[in-house]
Amino acid sequence: MKEQLQSIEQEALEKISQATDTNELQEIKVAYLGKKGSLTSVLRGMGKLSKEERPIIGELANKVREQITKSLEQQMEKLEEIALEQQLEQETIDVTLPGRPVRLGGPHLLTKVIEEIEDLFIGMGFEVREGPEVETDYFNFEALNLPKNHPAREMQDTFFITKELLMRTQTSPVQARTMLEYGGNKPVKMISPGKVYRRDTDDATHSHQFTQIEGLYVDKDVKMSDLKGVLDVFTKKMYGSDREIRFRPSFFPFTEPSVEIDISCKACAGKGCSICKRSGWIEILGAGMVHPNVLSMAGYDPEVYSGFAFGMGPERIAMLKYGIKDIRQFYTNDIRFLTQYHNA
């Protein structure tokens, strides 16, 4: 048995020294030291030895096991170092090469236009107010002089959640909430940007979800001329000092009188072309003097306070400013479209 152990040791050490990868070493370990390995098989026969031979053979077997284990560990360490060197050689990075350019993104065109409008009105003393997109029927309609069953509600196809909850069709509810918050005894000068929702068929000029910015100014002795002055400044800042505005009579339940605001066509300088449908003017937003009923429901005395309100769609503002013909381009995430306006 002594000769068997020495032979196993010599054979194992020779195979270990010739191994070229870690998987081969693992196979050698199992072949000699595993449960069914050569060394284990020899040790099972120790029961046939005499009492005098057992300690001698046992000691020799332990030395053989230790030697094979030590040789395996040394060869494993050596092969791992070789594998690491090969990997580093294959994955060498030339730090002197120029780096790959990083493509930076930018704010969405619609975000830029909204922020530009906000900055413009903040400069005129307006504050920016926000409100919930899931709104109550009262604030979305009734507080704005649109009682239940009012025919003007049909102008805004609404996404109702329950009979009293809905997705807001306009940002005007923020105006009603703000006036109530102010208690009917101090001026309100605000704009309310945000998303709004209406049941509509999506096409080049309509979307079921879009953005809106509404403005409100309530104080003592506010006149229609103040409204015209504010919108004239807005138009010239947004589209250029050569642009003119005009008021056309219209109807909105929450304002009286109500007007549509047109700006002179930049393409033809007001002479008439295909863009402005030969009129020389392009509709841009709606406005008017706040209806006395709206003031009363918000706690303001219409005999003391007056005000004006206006509402615009940033998508339309952007489309007119940048010559965009399809509103859906704002929402399709086409990188070719979006990158055109990073430096706009």
UniProtKB/TrEMBL annotation:
Pfam families, sorted: Phe_tRNA-synt_N (PF02912), tRNA-synt_2d (PF01409)
Gene3D superfamilies linked: Bira Bifunctional Protein, Domain 2
Protein keywords: Aminoacyl-tRNA synthetase, ATP-binding, Cytoplasm, Ligase, Magnesium, Metal-binding, Nucleotide-binding, Protein biosynthesis
Keyword presence, Cytoplasm: yes
Catalytic activity: tRNA(Phe) + L-phenylalanine + ATP = L-phenylalanyl-tRNA(Phe) + AMP + diphosphate + H(+)
One annotated GO molecular function: tRNA binding
InterPro entries: aa-tRNA-synth_II, aa-tRNA-synth_II/BPL/LPL, Phe-tRNA-synth_IIc_asu, Phe-tRNA_ligase_II_N, Phe_tRNA_ligase_alpha1_bac, Phenylalanyl-tRNA_Synthase, tRNA-bd_arm
Residues annotated to bind Mg(2+): 256
Enzyme Commission number, as recorded: 6.1.1.20
PANTHER family tied to this protein: PHENYLALANINE--TRNA LIGASE, MITOCHONDRIAL (PTHR11538:SF41), PHENYLALANYL-TRNA SYNTHETASE (PTHR11538)
Subunit structure comment from the entry: Tetramer of two alpha and two beta subunits.
Protein name, entry field: Phenylalanine--tRNA ligase alpha subunit
Lineage of origin: Bacteria, Bacillati, Bacillota, Bacilli, Bacillales
